[in-house]
Backbone:
């Protein structure tokens, strides 16, 4: 709480409470009115409303609650997050669905960086405050393996490596139907959807985006693909597969069949980061880390296999 007391000067005599607070404390009229409505404003020892008038020499007491920073990292353990590897330079985690990598505006759930902070894992302080140590991200609805930098040197090296596209990111995706050809490359630029800020689409003026895929299993209703990303655009796999009329099973945002999603009991896209290969930022050796399918994806795949 920020407690402020001030005596009303002659020039503000007769002003409304919200107007006087706004002028003296540099707040907006809306915020000043909220403070009065919340009982945080007193004039000469009594609570006043936003439209009450102030008088010269009156003692105005205002309590201003400090607003929570939506991007503040909150240490909080999450049972579903597993640390696959940790050394002085990096920490590799197995991210579950329903967890974001770092705080974002509007998100109040668990984060990877919050879990690491609560677990006593100190990560790099390079990067924006809420994204310190983050060199790659996975969507909230995508699970799997990812790396975070612990040292400043590791952050610098890995950040450049991801810019240069040297890490090997391998995903498995269960998509509707059967891609033709069974293996290939999708080279289509991606940009923000013209009608939905939170959605992306193949756009002529989008950023270059390249996805390589290979069919691992072909079943009656869906195909299991292995996917390698040459670029790393937001929602890239989901957008590219949807554009080829083979959306990820369980992905309503990009056009999945809701009946099939219900049949396999899936309420998120069937997409998992199964392997990550990087050149270790300290040793210079090539290292690989893997993540098994989580229970919901494994169950959905079994349903698809049994339907043949």
Residues:
């Amino acid at each position: 709480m920020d407690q402020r007391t001030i005596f009303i000067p002659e020039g503000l005599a007769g002003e409304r409470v919200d107007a006087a607070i706004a002028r003296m404390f540099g707040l907006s009229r809306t915020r000043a009115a909220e403070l009065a409505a919340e009982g945080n404003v007193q004039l000469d020892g009594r609570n006043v409303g936003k439209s009450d008038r102030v008088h010269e020499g009156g003692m105005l007491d205002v309590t201003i609650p400090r607003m929570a920073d939506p991007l503040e990292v909150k240490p909080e353990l999450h049972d579903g997050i597993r640390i696959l590897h940790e050394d002085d330079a990096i920490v590799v985690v197995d991210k579950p669905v329903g967890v974001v990598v770092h705080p974002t505006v509007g998100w109040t759930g668990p984060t990877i960086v919050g879990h690491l902070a609560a677990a006593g894992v100190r990560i790099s302080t390079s990067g924006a405050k809420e994204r310190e140590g983050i060199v790659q991200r996975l969507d909230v609805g995508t699970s799997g393996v990812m790396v975070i930098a612990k040292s400043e040197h590791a952050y610098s090296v890995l950040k450049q490596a991801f810019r240069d596209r040297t890490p090997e990111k391998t995903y498995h995706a269960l998509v509707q139907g059967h891609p033709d050809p069974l293996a290939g490359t999708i080279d289509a630029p991606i940009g923000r959807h013209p009608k939905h800020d939170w959605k992306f689409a193949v756009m002529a003026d989008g950023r270059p985006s390249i996805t390589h895929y290979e069919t691992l299993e072909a079943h009656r209703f869906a195909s299991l693909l292995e996917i390698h990303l040459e670029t790393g655009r937001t929602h890239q796999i989901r957008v590219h597969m949807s554009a080829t009329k083979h959306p990820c099973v369980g992905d309503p945002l990009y056009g999945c069949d809701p009946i099939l999603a219900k049949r396999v009991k899936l309420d998120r896209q069937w997409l998992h980061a199964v392997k990550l290969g990087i050149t270790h930022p300290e040793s210079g050796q090539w290292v690989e880390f893997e993540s098994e399918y989580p229970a919901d994806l494994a169950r959905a795949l079994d349903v698809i296999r049994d339907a043949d």
User: Anything to note?
Assistant: The longest strand covers residues 168-176. The longest helix spans residues 152-164. The chain has seven helices and 15 strands. The helical segments are 17-25, 29-37, 112-118, 152-164, 236-243, 258-263, 295-306.
